[in-house]
Every structure is written in structure tokens, then in C-alpha cells.
Design brief:
Blueprint: H1 5-20, H2 24-37, H3 42-54, H4 58-71, H5 76-88, H6 92-105, H7 110-122, H8 126-139, H9 144-156, H10 160-173, H11 178-195
Helix pairs in contact: 1-2, 2-3, 3-4, 3-5, 4-5, 5-6, 5-7, 6-7, 7-8, 7-9, 8-9, 9-10, 9-11, 10-11
């Protein structure tokens, strides 16, 4: 065990509890202290990057995820989290690059496939988006987000029946999903018109 790593682990555990409570500043402070104890620990930088994303400070998130990747170049979660932050900044090509690397490193990373699909969707690479969201659904059919994103892609492609089928799946998984409810409201009249 590296010197300071036990103290760092304790701060990480406390930070994750603070994050779960939505206490982002507390989590960042704890993680910063933990990094002082164990400055080469990629997980600490990655988790702090996630907290920065929760605070919508995506540049800080990218900086911390980059440090995580420098500390552990095969860290799929850090690539995925940095890709998510790039997407939030509308840097979709960089997001695609990072999320592609994440799924190369961990082909079972549902969230990386979802984030990859999201970036492709915004680049209007609809075939790639459908493929990525499909892989996310295949890995975890209980995750509503890829279903909602698939619905949007199919709507953009003019297939509102398939879009509604996916939105209904998302709402089966999470009946209160606001974006899915909004898209469902938009889609229903289109599907009714198509069936007449």
C-alpha cells in the first residue's frame, strides 16, 4: 500500500457520501485532500471530475479526467467521463474520440455506449448513434436514457412509430422521466397522423 493511500481511501468514501447527498463543494474539498495524500491515484481525479460535471464546471471535469488518464492510461471510466464533459461543451468530435476509447477499454460500459451515441446523435451520425444506443440497451435494458435517445434519433429519421415504442420503453423504466414525457407528448400526434 502506498503511503497515504488509506487516508485517501477514507476521504474518497466520505466524498462519495457527500456526492450522493448533493454536497458537491464538500465532495470536492474531501477529494482534494485525498489527492494530497495520494497524488497518483487516478480514481480520485476521476471522481472529482464527476463532481465537477455535477456542478456543470465541465472544463474542470476535463482537467481532472485528463489527470486520471495520465495516471492510468487504461482507465475506461475516465475516458467516458471526459467524453461526457466534452459533449456538455458541444465538443462532440472529442467526445466521440474519448467514448470510443472507453468502449475499446471496457466493452461492457453501458454509460460509455450511451455517451458515444449521444455525441453521434448531435453530429447527426444517426446510424452510429443507433448502433451505440443499441449496445447500451443490450448491456442494460433497465437504463432508460438510451431508449429516450433512440426515440429522438428515430424521430429525426421520420420513424415516429419506432420513436414512440422507444419512448414508451423509457417511461416503463422511469415513469417520471421528464425528457421522455416531453418527447412522448410531441410524438403521439405524429403517430396518430401516420395511422390515419
Amino acid at each position: 500500500m502506498r503511503p497515504g493511500s488509506a487516508s485517501a481511501r477514507g476521504r474518497l468514501d466520505q466524498a462519495q457520501c457527500a456526492l450522493d447527498r448533493g454536497e458537491y463543494d464538500t465532495a470536492i474539498s474531501l477529494l482534494t485532500t485525498a489527492i494530497g495524500f495520494d497524488p497518483h491515484n487516478a480514481e480520485l481525479y476521476n471522481v472529482r471530475g464527476c463532481v465537477w460535471s455535477c456542478k456543470e464546471d465541465f472544463r474542470q471535469a476535463i482537467a481532472d479526467c485528463t489527470k486520471a488518464i495520465q495516471a492510468r492510461p487504461s482507465y475506461a471510466a475516465a475516458y467516458n467521463n471526459r467524453g461526457h464533459a466534452w459533449s456538455a461543451l458541444d465538443e462532440f468530435e472529442k467526445a466521440i474520440e474519448d467514448c470510443t476509447r472507453a468502449v475499446e477499454l471496457d466493452s461492457n460500459n453501458t454509460y460509455a455506449y450511451n455517451n458515444l451515441g449521444f455525441a453521434h446523435m448531435h453530429m447527426q451520425n444517426y446510424d452510429e448513434a443507433i448502433e451505440s444506443f443499441g449496445k447500451a440497451v443490450a448491456l442494460d435494458n433497465s437504463y432508460p436514457q438510451p431508449h429516450r435517445h433512440l426515440a429522438f434519433v428515430y424521430h429525426c429519421l421520420g420513424d415516429d412509430i419506432e420513436a414512440l415504442r422507444n419512448i414508451e420503453q423509457a417511461l416503463t423504466l422511469d415513469p417520471e422521466y421528464p425528457d421522455a414525457l416531453e418527447l412522448q407528448t410531441l410524438l403521439r400526434p405524429h403517430v396518430a397522423d401516420e395511422s390515419n
